[in-house]
Amino acid sequence: MKSYLGLGASDRRLHRGLKNASFLSLGNLVSQAIGFVGLLFIARRFGPEKYGIYVTVLAFVTFFEIFDLSGLLKVIVREGSKDIESLERTLNGTIFLKTAFFSLAMVLCIGGSFLTHYSQTIKVLIILYSIELIHSGLESFLSAIYQTVEKMQYLAAFTVLTRVLITVLSIVFLYLGAGVLVILLVNLFSRFLVLLINYVYSRRFARFRLNFRLSLEPRILRATIIFSLMGIINAVAIKIDVLMLSFLTASRDVGVYSVAQEFTKEGILLRNIAATAFFPIAVKFFLSGTVRARTLLRYSFILFFAVLAGCVVLSFFAPNIVVLFFGDKYAASGQIFRCLLFCLPSAFFMLPFTTALQATHNEQLLLIVFAIAAALNVPLNILFFYEFGLIGIAYSTLIVFLAQAVALYVLSIRRMKRQGYLV
C-alpha cells in the first residue's frame, strides 16, 4: 500500500525540479531574447510576403517531426529515471528505431511537398530544409540523456549557443542582401554544428553506438507508440495553424499571423520547459507515494490565475507592442496577438496534470484529450477563417486550448484517483 510522502523527500525533489527549471528557463530566456532580435531583423527585412514564405517552409518541415517517433524521448527519460544503470542499454536498443523514423519523416516531407499547391520556389526550399529532420531526431535523442541524469544546464547552454549562431549569422547575411535560401542554410549550419558539440558532451554521461538491432520490451515499445501518437495528435490540435493558413491564404497573411503567434509561442515554450524539468522528478515522486488531488489542483489554479493576470495587463498594450517591434507593415498582427495571449492560462493550467499523467503511465488518457482537441481544431480553423478572417484562427485556438484544459481536468482526476495515485 502506498504511503504519504514525507516533507523532506518532497522538498528535495521540488528543489531539484526548481533547479532544473531554473537552468532551462534561464537558457530559454537568454536564447529567446537573442532569437527575438534575429526575428525582428528577418521579419522587417523580408516584409510580410517573404517572411510568409520563410515561415511556410519552417512550418511545413517541422510538422513532419511528428513522424520521427518523438515519444521515444519520454520513454527513455522515464525508464532511465527509474534505473539510471539501464540508460545505455535503452539507448543502444532504440537508436536504430529512431534513425529509421526520422529518415521516414524526411521522405514523407519531401514527398508531401509535391502534393501541395506551393510555388516551385517554396517546394525547392522545403526539400532543402527537410535535412533539419535529421537534426531534430538526433537532438531529441541526445536530450534524453541530459534529462535523465538531470543535467539541464547542458540543454540550456546548447539552446543559447544555437540561437546565438543563428541570430548573428542571419543578421550578417541579411545586411549583405541574403534572401530566404541563405537564411535557411544559416539555420541548418548552426543547428548541425551545435549538434556535434552536443554529441561530444553527451558521452560524458552515456555512450551509445549506431547498430541495426531493435531491443525493446513490449511495454516500452507500446509506451513509445502511444507517446508518439500523442505528439501527432497534439500537432494537429495546436501546432498546425500556420501550415493550414499556408493552404488557405496568401504568403503575406501567413507572415502577419506568424508574427502574432511568435509572441505567444514564447509563453508556451516556457510552459514546456517547466514540464521537461519536472518530468523526471514527477516519476520519482509518484513512485514514492500518494499525492493529494487538491494539491495538484491548487498548483493548476495558481498557475492559471497568475498567467491570466499577466495576460490581461499585456493585452492592453499588445497592438502597440507589435507595431513598436515589427513596424506598421505588421499592424494587423496586434489584434491577433491580443487574442492568442489568452491561450496561455489554459496551457499553464494543464501543466501539473500532463506531467502527472505521463509520470504514472497514463499517456493513453492524454491521447484521448489531444484527440478531442484535434477533432475541434481543424474544422474550427476552416469555419472561423472563412467567417472572421485571420483572427478566426486565433478564436479557434482559444476554444481548443480551453476545451483541452477542461477535458484534461475532468478525466485525469477521475483516472488517477481510481488508480490510487491521488486521494
Give the key terms.
423 residues; mainly alpha; 82% helix
What can you tell me about this protein's structure?
With 423 residues, the chain is an all-alpha fold. The protein has one domain. The protein contains 17 helices and no strands. It has helices at residues 7-63, 71-82, 87-113, 120-129, 132-148, 152-175, 180-202, 218-238, 241-248, 251-288, 293-315, 318-326, 333-340, 344-349, 351-359, 363-388, 390-419. Helix 3 (87-113) runs antiparallel to helix 5, helix 5 runs parallel beside helix 7 and helix 10 crosses helix 15 (351-359).
**What distance separates the N and C termini?**
13 Å
Roughly how many Å is the radius of gyration? Answer: 21 Å
Number of alpha- plus pi-helical segments = 17
How much helical structure, as a percent, in the residues? Answer: over 70%
Largest sheet: none
How many strands appear in the DSSP assignment?
Answer: 0
Q: Give the integer mean of the pLDDT values.
A: 83
Poorly predicted segments? 1-7
Q: What is the N-to-C order of secondary-structure elements (H for helix, E for strand)?
A: HHHHHHHHHHHHHHHHH
Class by alpha and beta content: mainly alpha
How large a portion of the residues is in β-strands, by DSSP E? under 5%
Q: How many domains?
A: 1
| Basic shape | globular
How do you describe this structure in short?
The chain is mainly alpha-helical and 423 residues long.
List strands and helices in order, with pairings:
Layout (H helix, E strand, L loop, with lengths): L6 H57 L7 H12 L4 H27 L6 H10 L2 H17 L3 H24 L4 H23 L15 H21 L2 H8 L2 H38 L4 H23 L2 H9 L6 H8 L3 H6 L1 H9 L3 H26 L1 H30 L4
